[in-house]
Amino acid sequence: MKKEWFFDRFCGSQIAVYTEDGIVTEAMIEQENADDLTGTIYKGRVCNLVPGMQAAFVSCGLERNCYLPLGEGAARFTSYDGEGNLVSTPDLKEGDEILVQIVKPPRGTKGAKVTCDLSFVGKTLIYLPRTGFLGISRKITDPAQRERLLKETDKLREEGAGFIVRTAAATADKRHLRIESEYLKRVWRSVCQTAQTAQVGDAVYREFDLPFRVMRDSLGDGVTRLYVGDRELYDKIVMLARLRPDIGERRVVYCPEEENTFRKYGLTPQLRALCSRSVPMENGGYLVIDRTEAMTVIDVNTGKFTGEDSLEETVFETNLVAVKEIARQVRLRNIGGLVAVDFIDMTEETHRTAIDAALAEALAADRAKCRVMPMSDMCVSMFTRKRTGGDILDFFLSPCPHCTRQGFVYSDRFLAITLRGDLLELFADDYEAAVVDLSRDFMRRLLAGRYLSEEAHGIWKDKRIYLVPHEDWHEEKFAVRGDNSGVLNLPDEAKLMY
What we know:
alpha+beta, single chain, 4 domains, 12 helices, Aminopeptidase, Nucleotidyltransferase, domain 5, CATH 2.40.50.140, globular, six-stranded mixed beta sheet
């Protein structure tokens, strides 16, 4: 199986796409100015203690004071097997300056939730400099392997500190564990040194951005190539690849920025398909995926598949195919929370049991934690999936302004990315100027958002891009044409991009 990663950055966003034999299996998109503060460590000051709530409020320079529960300590690590002190009660008083780490970012009227029990995440280990806990992932099930990893990791920790062995450590040898543990300890020492001169409200440590997290958590397992469509991003990934013996610099391929890497390798249509409710399956059946406020509902349909034997066998075969596609879609769309799957009705109990087992097996390959519940008599299965990061559809879609925001339309950022691809292809045909016909409202938002300003002043600095607004065009409609004539005949309201 050919396993490849594709990285690029454009329109103020970074994107990473993972494919297996050319089929998109995972996609992650992150805005470069995103305000996700999870994992960030701040130097804060205790503002007030609330004994009745067993909590303190800490000023960290954010809009609202942060909430620090007392007595909870590092109890968030109880999802790992292990032993040691997980509950600590800091001896605090008002005015104390302390280091705290964001556990939950601020949301709405609530400030961020923080902890004094800091953690530094690596590929195979989580380092806990202030928590004397030695734990291991429950996904590592082999008893001998668990014993070996815990024994080797225990030798790496100093007094009062701890480690958690991550799932990725299952095949790691003691050399890799030692190298990573030393790296995480150096990070902690750097944080302590920075904090000595930092002011209250300063961030003394931030989690790495999307490419670093992917390189840390998701690579390995036979990845053959990493394609990168941005020079700055390429330099970052090469630097990291040099530190990874399972990857190496030779596997990183730079794709010139003038090319449309995602279209070249057939990824664009697959990413656009994420916006559709209907998902075709390889046997002619299809899924319908609907998001609601409380859960995600997936309906399985036979579609064009008629089978060759009995109706029961046709239904069973369709449901088996659906299981694989469901596992791929929840990972690809990063669907979290409760998921209800309405399988096609089966009468035989053995078939229902087989679908339950197949669904659990398919979801077991997901890095996010999933829990499958037994199928009901109505052939409805329920499972939960822990969300890791944001919902990718929030990047592609925005609430529709024309139907009381109950439906969705393509987001301005996604439309800008699509326009960027069209312009790349046009300029690759040696056009010196481009004329973009589009709706007046989209033109206004495109200019205000400056989504393509980096390209306009970079790879397109010698090109001319004219925007021609149309009052009666739908907001999602635009057309691009090239022109090499010296003089363009354009309406008065046409504008030059940026």
